[in-house]
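Thread: quick sanity check before group meeting

JM: Hey all, I'm pulling together slides for Thursday and realized we never actually wrote out the predicted structure for the chain we discussed last week. Dropping the sequence here so it's in one place. If anyone has concerns about the input, flag it before I start.
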Amino acid sequence: MDHLQWRILPVLMLLASFVVYLYVKEPSKVSRNDCSLLPNYHYWIRSKRIVTPDGIISGAVEVKGKFITSVVMEKDWQDTSKGEQVIDYGEAVVMPGLVDVHAHLDDPGRADWEGFPSGTKAAAAGGITTLIDMPLNSFPSTTSTESLELKMKAAEKNIYVDVGFWGGLVPENAFNSSALEALLEAGVLGLKSFMCPSGINDFPMTNANHIKEGLLVLAKYRRPLLVHAEVQLDSESHLELNTEDARSYSTYLKTRPPAWEEAAIRELLTVTKDTRIGGSAEGAHLHIVHLSDASSSLDLIKEAKVNGDSLSVETCPHYLAFTAEEIQDGDTRFKCAPPIRDSSNREKLWDALKDGNIDLLSSDHSPTVPELKLLGDGNFLRAWGGISGLQFVLPITWSYGRKYGVTLEQLALWWSERPAKIAGQKLKGAIASGNFADIVVWDPSAEFDLNDEYPVYIKHPSISAYMGKRLAGKVFATFVGGNLVYKEGKHAPAACGVQILAKT
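JM (edit): ok, ran it. Output follows.
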């Protein structure tokens, strides 16, 4: 993971780092009893399976206020505890809370698609303690300081987990370094751009020239640029395919071939070379989101990393769980971009993830209203694209990953440690003394049916491709900054998550 270190100075303390990521806008005048289902300020979490940076231990985690103050082995715990409250989870897994760096909560402007309250309730129920909200599909898109302020106001007292924000890199601001700097100074954790039409009118696509300019600005702040890497190669192919069966998934799959991803990544690599040591954009980092193609596109990424480009890549649970062959005609719940590809590609994605060539996972939670999914019509060419499943990413990854020998330590790496680094969150992503007490407690062996009787908190469960699945890995409890915000189907009374803004 040297390419994820971004070659920054060693961090001794959060306040001594070059870039400091601070918590802001904490809910005021809210009692701990409202913010947490556990009233204690000082307590211990005990388990026989605690996932730490040094491996899985049997022991206990000491929490004081927002922070983890110690992590001790079982044999040392009795001598350390002084009679504080103890929550003993037995054989359940205690793991760092998930950090989801790619979610669309659509607030403000399209809260009927999701919204901060339902989205962060779903996150908490799924063990996600931090999520970074994308600059679209809210309205307006977060491409200016004014639109960021609107998003922050929408989030205030409405988030159950901690939330940060990506800003948007679009043609309108790409060549305006002052505008980009103002957005970064206002606290976005980095920028996001599309290399193909986004489907959102106020978020047009960028090209390599725009991205090059964005990286030059980001280098000064040592923050990442996230890129949707698809380039539309043949505008006529879509028109020709309109004559085919639009209810067939194979028809849609043909409209976004792997060559689109490969072409975009080739174009990106003409500018990521500037992020190498001594390059004009040294200090910037480029992160490719939701990789679907595990062949030529992945080979290009691997080569660029070897050459020293500051580059990383994520994929998503839906690419690891589903295959094109199993998607039924008209089931537009599975439409996303880039698309879910065939079973051979899925195997290669798992191999790349396990080998470290894919760095991390994200949900790419991208909901909408059911009407836009065209569930009755089943037209894949016209339906809104996006997988809705923020709440289920942990059990999905575990349930499908067991076949490939996925370990608890790998889950923590893909879902906590590495995403925290991308988002610049140095005190998140690991159960370690001094870190924020962001913790998920879950049982990998507990199976459940994801049906109408299961408590689901995303706004529109009917559009989720995960509904109807039998999964393993039930979340018992989620702690955010020491607050027990979720416990077995119940949330804390108040939404006391805090907004994460970057400060220089």
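AS: nice. The chain has 17 helices and 20 strands. The longest strand covers residues 42-52.
JM: adding both to the slides.
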